[in-house]
Write a structure and sequence with these properties.
Order of helices and strands: EHHEEEEHHEEEHHEEEEEEEEE
Radius of gyration: 33 Å
Helix content: 10-25%
CATH superfamily of the largest domain: membrane protein fhac
Shape: extended
Number of domains: 4
């Protein structure tokens, strides 16, 4: 190409798409092949009744995810040292009599060697490093019993609950790490210590909305339930985002952007979205025995002038009856969580010996 330039060309040989014919586990005595096979979610054997499914094509990334699920089956039963060795993959031609290259079907047999190890049981369970909550209060989120099989699920679910509790108090960097100590002697007893690193407590910094060209900031901000300076409760914040979506006139297009100010111990949040259609207009005409020939019109908006107010107008005029209605609802009266509304209407009906008129 030039003195200091070169063209790089990648030649790709895609090969054949190989489907999985059989998956076999070796070394497993605790769980059957079927139990382990159904623990896998993204790697399947090829079946004629699932021809549309792409899970029967070998994919290394999907396979590694499924192996973690197989490990969980053992770890939840107390086999903490389970080892899954590299798979042995054997490929073969499923239709050897076929001579046309494009019609040749290749399949794969996967053999997965396991080393189960020994089964371990709970000894003592304690929590260390907590200053915000008493350790004995946090222990109740771990439904363990001494002498029961050591379960990864019990520890993982308990630490997930602790993480939610700390995040609800603004400790966004709280971290839990389990440590295992095997007791000497027989019995395979393991003492578990959950070490908690709490970090600092953070508060809500600046909250900004981007994309609301019509809707006023305060209409969206009041749904968050969190204000600048409040302790950052992530669960309350998520509920606030859900309520903003429920309004129907502002759509959050992507995850909020969080910017952490370590010096001020605050988190600034930017919520990005767009205003959505908030107006409804209807026209109609027809004939009925009561109204005769009539025409009708209605208009409503759920976000009048970007204030979150609802205004509706309905009008109908016919040979025998006429109808007019104007309604208004303020969902946050005086910026408090209470609504006020009302309507003005005028209805008249003249039919046979009936002459009725109502206003209100």
């Amino acid at each position: 190409m030039g003195e200091n330039e070169r063209r790089v060309v990648f030649l790709v040989d895609e090969g054949d798409k190989i489907k999985i014919d059989n998956i076999d586990f070796t070394g497993n005595t605790v769980f059957s092949d079927r139990r382990l096979y159904y623990a896998m979610k993204k790697t399947r054997e090829s079946n004629f009744y699932q021809f549309w499914d792409s899970k029967d094509v070998y994919n290394q990334a999907s396979y590694e995810e499924d192996i973690e699920l197989v490990k969980k089956v053992y770890q939840n039963a107390g086999y903490k040292d389970i080892v899954v060795k590299d798979p042995v993959i054997e490929t073969f031609v499923a239709n050897p009599q076929e001579t046309r290259p494009e019609k040749i079907k290749r399949r794969a047999r996967i053999q997965i060697p396991l080393v189960e190890g020994e089964r371990y049981y709970f000894g003592d369970l304690k929590i260390e490093g907590t200053t915000v909550f008493p350790p004995e209060r946090l222990l109740r989120f771990f439904p363990w019993q001494p002498g029961k099989p050591l379960s990864r699920a019990i520890l993982a679910d308990g630490m997930k609950t602790l993480d939610e509790i700390y995040r609800g108090r603004g400790y966004i960097y709280a971290f839990m790490n389990p440590e295992y100590v095997e007791r000497p002697g027989k019995g395979n007893i393991v003492d578990v210590t959950i070490r908690v690193t709490e970090g600092d407590q953070f508060r809500v910094g600046r909250v900004e909305f981007v994309g609301n060209k019509t809707t006023k900031d305060k209409v969206l901000r009041r749904e968050l339930q969190l204000f600048e300076g409040d302790v950052l409760d992530m669960e309350s914040f998520k509920k606030g985002l859900f309520k903003i979506t429920q309004l129907g006139y502002f759509k959050i297009e992507e995850d909020p952007e969080f910017r952490v100010d370590a010096d001020k111990k605050a988190v600034d949040v930017t919520i990005k979205g767009v205003d959505t259609n908030r107006n409804e207009v209807q026209f109609g005409a027809g004939y009925s025995q009561l109204d005769g020939i009539f025409g009708q019109f209605s208009f409503s908006t759920r976000n009048f002038l970007g204030r979150g107010d609802t205004i509706g107008v309905q009008f109908q005029r016919g040979g025998y009856s006429n109808f007019f209605d104007l309604s208004f609802v303020e969902p946050w009266f005086l910026d408090k969580r209470m609504s006020i509304g009302g309507s003005i209407f005028n209805r008249s009906l003249t039919y046979a010996d009936v002459d009725q008129e109502s206003r209100g």
